[in-house]
Design the sequence.
């Protein structure tokens, strides 16, 4: 296990793409400390900001408030990263495999364009969770993002596949221009959920105000949700027991686009 | 010295079985009644590959299912992977998809897979939706009742069909009772099915016929009413014979079913337990009754 403990808070954003398991694996601690990072627009060494303990392995533990550290575990393909504190923007962006656990909040663009693996954020997530990076046309493509708290705006924007689960509330434009995949929000959806939805599923357990591009279909109990809820228990995300027998109102949309997406709103009766 | 259990002779012979391909299909529904209903329909008219093209049966009722609802496990066997894929899609499509409240899942983790929901999804006429849950792809097919959920791929593996025992009794009631007890014991063995009605065959067959157009005909050597007309295999005092055919996913499963079946069938009124074979020239697998029983004996 490699333990990196923040020893001095960066004054500017610290771009630390170097912090990913396959990059640290089998490197001695001294070598890890010499890995390059970008402090604002200045090159710097990882060791300038972190104490490094243990030789490199596929399991990394990060300690401290890393909200100014960008790109933690971005593009990681394997292993495990645990952040004991807050994480900065682009946590696990474009990741392909492995696991990230954040025992704090995560900044914007966490899991953006990820193609595999799992991110479990025990606090809140920022904007564009699992979304597309600026200028890109596709967001998250596979994988799983779990958020125990709430998430910001544009969660799952343009996502193509995968599952995002938010136990708290989600901000505005959840599932913006989503192509496929699933977003489950146990709390409240913000304004204009599913705007421009092509395909894909947005589920909420609270009443939601939908755009005019949505039409009511029916009230029913979709079996696939039971399977997802059971799967979430395997990922140690506690879901309310009544989920398994919950009924939902199904709305199809967004008819401004293909209209083959759906928003499922929990029937409170 | 021959082998006996409870005074019943176990003939020193073997059951001759054939290579097949097998799949396990899990069916769930709103309650056990509807899960069983779908499974019964799906495994209907599937007693013998000779006349039905496939063999199928209910393996067990399930306590744990992928969606947490009551469920039933069924096994389906066919002579080739292609034939199995074909029967699987047809039977799920006609008997499970159509049955109220059901969902259908793969129950066999195998290297080789065939398309199940991947074919059935077209019934959704482009309104079907795919979901990947826990790394496995499922199809949600809209139907009038709601939605049919089916797994995209089903595992298939090489399996065995045609394991069997013959129960030779002094009269029909005793033979039927012995066969029922054997079936009850064999049905508790995981990985096997007994594809015939109630697990029992009263009309065992031999290969070929005096009629050129027929591939199989009555097993005259074991028909009590033909004792004086053919070269009979029946000992004195045997007046009824019943067969139990066993299909299984692997050799140990068939051996275990054979073992518990023989042990359960050795009751008063039964004279001999035998097995059907073709001289060892046709089937790849041979289940020697004495050997199977010895392997199950605690040492």
Sequence:
């Amino acid at each position: 296990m490699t333990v990196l403990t923040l020893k001095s808070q960066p004054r500017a954003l610290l771009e630390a793409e170097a912090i990913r398991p396959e990059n640290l694996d089998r490197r001695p601690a001294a070598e890890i400390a010499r890995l390059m990072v970008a402090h604002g627009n200045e090159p710097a060494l990882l060791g300038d900001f972190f104490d490094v303990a243990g030789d490199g392995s596929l399991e990394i533990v990060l300690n401290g408030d890393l909200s100014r550290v960008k790109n933690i575990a971005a593009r990681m393909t394997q292993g495990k990263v645990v952040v004991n504190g807050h994480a900065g923007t682009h946590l696990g962006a474009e990741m392909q495999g492995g696991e990230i656990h954040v025992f704090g909040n995560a900044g914007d663009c966490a899991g953006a364009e990820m193609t595999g693996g799992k991110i479990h954020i025990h606090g809140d997530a920022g904007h564009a969770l699992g979304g597309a990076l600026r200028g890109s046309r596709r967001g998250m493509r596979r994988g799983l993002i779990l958020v125990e708290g709430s998430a910001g705006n544009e969660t799952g924007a343009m996502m193509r596949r995968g599952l995002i689960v938010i136990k708290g509330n989600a901000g505005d434009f959840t599932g913006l221009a989503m192509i496929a995949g699933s977003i489950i929000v146990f709390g409240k959806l913000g304004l204009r959920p599913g705007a421009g939805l092509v395909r894909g599923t947005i589920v909420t357990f609270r009443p939601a105000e939908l755009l005019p591009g949505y039409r009511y279909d029916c009230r029913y109990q979709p079996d696939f949700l039971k399977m997802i809820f059971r799967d979430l228990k395997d990922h140690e995300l506690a879901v309310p027991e009544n989920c398994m027998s919950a009924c939902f109102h199904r709305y199809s949309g967004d008819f401004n686009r293909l209209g083959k997406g759906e928003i499922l709103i929990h029937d409170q009766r | 010295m021959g082998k006996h259990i409870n005074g019943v002779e176990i003939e020193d012979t073997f059951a001759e079985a054939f290579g097949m391909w097998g799949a396990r299909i899990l069916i769930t529904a709103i309650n056990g009644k509807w899960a069983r209903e779908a499974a019964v329909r799906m495994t209907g008219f599937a007693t013998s590959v000779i006349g039905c093209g496939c063999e199928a049966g209910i393996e067990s009722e399930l306590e744990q299912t992928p969606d947490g609802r009551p469920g039933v496990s069924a096994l389906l066997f066919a002579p080739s992977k292609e034939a199995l894929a074909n029967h699987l899609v047809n039977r799920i499509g006609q008997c499970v998809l159509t049955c109220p409240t059901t969902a259908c899942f793969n129950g066999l983790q195998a290297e080789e897979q065939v398309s199940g929901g991947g074919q059935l999804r077209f019934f959704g006429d482009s309104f079907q939706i795919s979901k990947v849950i826990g790394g496995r792809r499922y199809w949600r097919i809209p139907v009038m009742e709601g939605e049919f959920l089916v797994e995209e791929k089903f595992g298939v593996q090489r399996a065995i069909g045609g394991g069997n025992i013959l129960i030779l009794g002094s009269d029909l009631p005793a033979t039927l009772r012995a066969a029922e007890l054997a079936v009850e014991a064999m049905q508790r063995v995981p990985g096997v099915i007994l594809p015939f009605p109630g697990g029992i065959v009263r009309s065992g067959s031999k290969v070929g016929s005096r009629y050129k157009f027929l591939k199989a005909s009555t097993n005259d050597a074991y028909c009590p009413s033909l004792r004086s007309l053919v070269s009979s295999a029946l000992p004195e005092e045997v007046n009824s014979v019943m067969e139990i055919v066993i299909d299984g996913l692997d050799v140990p499963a068939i051996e275990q079913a054979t073992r518990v079946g023989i042990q359960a069938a050795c009751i008063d009124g039964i004279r001999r337990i035998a097995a059907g074979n073709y001289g060892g020239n046709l089937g790849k697998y041979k289940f020697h009754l004495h050997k199977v029983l010895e392997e199950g004996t605690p040492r």
